[in-house]
Amino acid sequence: MNKKFDRFAGVAFLLVGILFLVESQKISDSAYGSSVGPKIFPMWLGIILIALSARLLYETFKYKSEEWKKERLQYKKFLIIFVSAVLYAFFLEKIGYVVSTFLFLLIAFQTVERGKMVYSILISAAFSFGVYYMFSELLGGSLPGFPLL
Amino acid sequence: MDTLQFLADGFSVAFQWQNLLFALVGVIIGTAVGVLPGIGPMSGVALLIPVTATITSGMPTSAAAASSIILLAGVYYGAMYGGSTTSILLNTPGESSSVVTTLDGYQMAQQGRAGAALAISAIGSFCAGIVALIGLVLLAEPLSNVAVKFGPAEYFSLMLLGLAAVSGLAGKSMTKALIMTVLGLMLGTIGIDAVSGIARFTYDQPILYSGLEFLTVAVGLFALGEVFKTILEKDEETGAIAKIHRIMPTKQDLKDSAIPITRGSLLGFFIGVLPGAGATLASFFSYMTEKKFSKNPETFGKGNIAGVAGPESANNAASGGAMIPLLTLGIPGSGTTAILMGALIMYNIQPGPLLFDEHPEVAWGLIASMFIGNLMLLVLNMPLVRVFAKIIETPKKYLLPMIVAISFFGVYAVQYTTFDLFLLLGCGVLGYLLSKNDYPVAPLVLALVLGPMIENNMRRALTISNGDFSIFFTKPLSLVFIVAAAAWLLVPLLLKLRGRKVIINEEG
C-alpha cells in the first residue's frame, strides 16, 4: 500500500464529495410536485463520499506503511506512447483514420521495442488499412477518410 | 413444458448461421484473451462491444442484441477456459480465476502430462458449462416470475444488495471499494436526469448532456489501464513453455477426475449465482474441497489431476451461474457481467424479469448458444491446444499498441466524438493508478451501469410513499434485501475484527 497515494486520493475524493454536495444544491427542484427531486440522490452521494474519504484518511494514519518497493517504472516509454495517443485522438478527425492510426502504431511499436522497422511498417499499414476498409467499405460505417483525396 | 418450448426456440436462434459464427468467433477470441497475459475477461469483453456493435449494426435491434451478446458471452467463458492454458504450461495464470490451477497443473506439465491436464480442463469446463446451462433453464423462469412482482422499493434494495456484495468482496480495503462504488454512482448522475429532464453537472457542455458513455469508461479503466501497466512495469521474463506430448487423457485420468468435475461444477455454479462471488472464489473453494475429500491429500500440489479438474470446472460453472442474476433480475454480480449488461442496455434491451417476456430470443438464444459455445470449446481446444499455446508467444511489442488502436477504433466508431477518446485516455491513466493502489475498478463500472436505475427506482418508491424513507423497510422483501446488503458489508468487517483472514475476490 502506498500511504502517500492514499492520502492524496483521500483528499481528492473529499473534494469531489464536497463539490457534489455543494453543486447538487444548485440543481433546481423537480417541477412536477414530487417531494423527491433530482437533487436528493447526488446530494446523498456527496455526503457518503465525504464520510468514506474521511474514513480513508483516518485509515492512512493507522496502518504502517509497508516498505515501498523501489520500482523502476518506464516513464519515458509510457510518456511517449501516451503523448502520441493524445495526438492521435487530436488529429484523428483532421488527418483521417488511416494516416493517424498508421503513424500512432508505428511510433508505439518502435517505442515499446526498437528495431524490425520493416515488420512495424507492414503491421501498422495492414492494421490501419484493414480496419478502415473492413469498416467503411464492407460494413458501411463511417470513419474520417483521407483529407487530401 | 413452456420452458422446453422456449429453449427449443432459443436453439433455433442459436443455430442461425450468423449466430453460430458469432459463438465460434467469441470462444476463439475468448480463449486467446484468456491465454494472453495482460488482457482479462473484463477488458476482452469491453474491447469487443464496439466491434460487435458495428458488425451487427445492419440487423434489427433484437437480433443484433442476441448476436452480439452471444459473441460477448463466448468471450467470457472462452477466457475462463483459456486462462488455464498458461497456468498449466507456463505457471503464470492468464486470469485470476486460474491461479489455483497452477498448483497442480504446472506440476503435471513438469511430469510430461501437460496434454492430459489441458484436456481435463477442457472436459471439465464443458461439463461445468452443461451444469450451468441446466441450472439456468431450471431457475430462469421461476426467478423471473418472482422478480416480476417487484416494485420500485424492492428493486432499489436489490440493487443496493448487488452493489454491497461486489464492494464487500472486492479488493483489500472495503473503504476503497465503497469509495469506488459511490464514485461510479456519481459519474452515473452526470447528464440529463431521466425523470425531470433537468441537466445535472453538465456545466452547459452539450457533450455531457447524454452522460458519460459507459463503454468508454469501461474500456479505458480495464483495457487501457492494463496496457499502461504493462508498458510502465517491465515484466519478468517468462519461463520456458512446457512441451505437450499427448493430448488425450488416460482412462485412469478420466476416472480420477469424474467426481471432482461434478463437485466443482455444482459448487462453482452456486457460488456464481451469488452476487459478488465470482469465478476466482469458486475455483479456490473447489480446490480446498477436493483436497479435503481426497484420499491422499498430500499429493495435491505435486500434480494431482483432481486439483486441475475441480477448480477448472468450478470457474466455468461460476461464469455460467453469474448469468442468472443478470438475466432474471437485471443485477450483474461481477465486473464482467456488468459489462455484458451495459452491452445489452446499449441495444435498448433491459435485462431483468421482463427480458424473458419481451425479448425471449435474446435470453433463450444466449442460453442455447452457451451450450453450443461450450461444445465448440471442447471440439476446438482438444486439437488446437498447441496453436493456442503459440499465442502466448505473441510479442508484446505489437500487442500493446494494437490494443490501444482497437480501443480507439471501437470508441470512435460508436461515439463519433474525439471527446470520448480523451475521456478514454483519462480513464486509462485513472484505471492504472487506481488498481495499482488497490482501488478496485470493477465496483465503479458496476455502479455506473446500475446508478441511473437505482436512482430512478429510489425516486419512484419515494414518490409512492410521499418521501417517506420507511417504505424500504416496511416492504418485507425490500427489508430482506437491505438486511442482506448490510450483512454482506458487516460480516467481513466483523471477521476481520476477530483477526480472521477473509478471502477476497480479486477478479471482481
What's the topology here?
The complex is a heterodimer of chains A (149) and B (508).
Chain A: H1 3-24, H2 40-62, H3 75-95, H4 97-112, H5 117-138
Helix pairs in contact in A: 1-2, 3-4, 4-5
Chain B: H1 2-14, H2 17-35, H3 41-55, H4 61-90, H5 101-110, H6 114-148, H7 152-169, H8 174-189, E1 191-192, E2 199-200, H9 214-232, H10 251-273, H11 279-293, H12 306-321, H13 323-329, H14 335-346, H15 355-358, H16 360-391, H17 396-415, H18 418-436, H19 442-464, H20 471-474, H21 476-497
Antiparallel strand pairs in B: 1-2
Helix pairs in contact in B: 1-16, 2-4, 2-16, 3-4, 3-9, 3-14, 3-17, 4-5, 4-6, 4-12, 4-14, 4-16, 5-6, 5-12, 6-10, 6-12, 6-13, 6-16, 7-8, 7-19, 7-21, 8-19, 9-17, 9-18, 10-11, 10-12, 11-12, 14-19, 17-18
Summarize the structure.
The complex is a heterodimer of chains A (149) and B (508). Chain A is mostly helical. Chain A contains five helices and no strands.
Name the features.
heterodimer, A: 149 residues, mainly alpha, 2 domains, 5 helices, 70% helix, flat, B: 508 residues, two-stranded antiparallel ribbon, 21 helices, 2 strands, globular
How does this model look, in words?
- The complex is a heterodimer of chains A (149) and B (508).
- The mean pLDDT of chain A is 83.
- Chain A has two domains: 3-62; 75-138, no CATH class.
- Chain A is mainly α and 149 residues long.
- Chain A has five helices and no strands.
- Chain A starts with a helix and ends in an 11-residue tail after the last helix.
- The radius of gyration of chain A is 24 Å and the shape is flat.
- Chain B is mainly α and 508 residues long.
- Chain B starts with a helix and ends in an 11-residue tail after the last helix.
- The radius of gyration of chain B is 22 Å and the shape is globular.
- In chain B, strand 1 and strand 2 form a beta hairpin.
- Chain B contains 21 helices and two strands.
- Chain B has one domain (2-497).
- In chain B, 73% of the residues lie in helices and 1% in strands.
- In chain B, helix 6 runs parallel beside helix 12 (306-321) and helix 6 packs antiparallel against helix 16 (360-391).
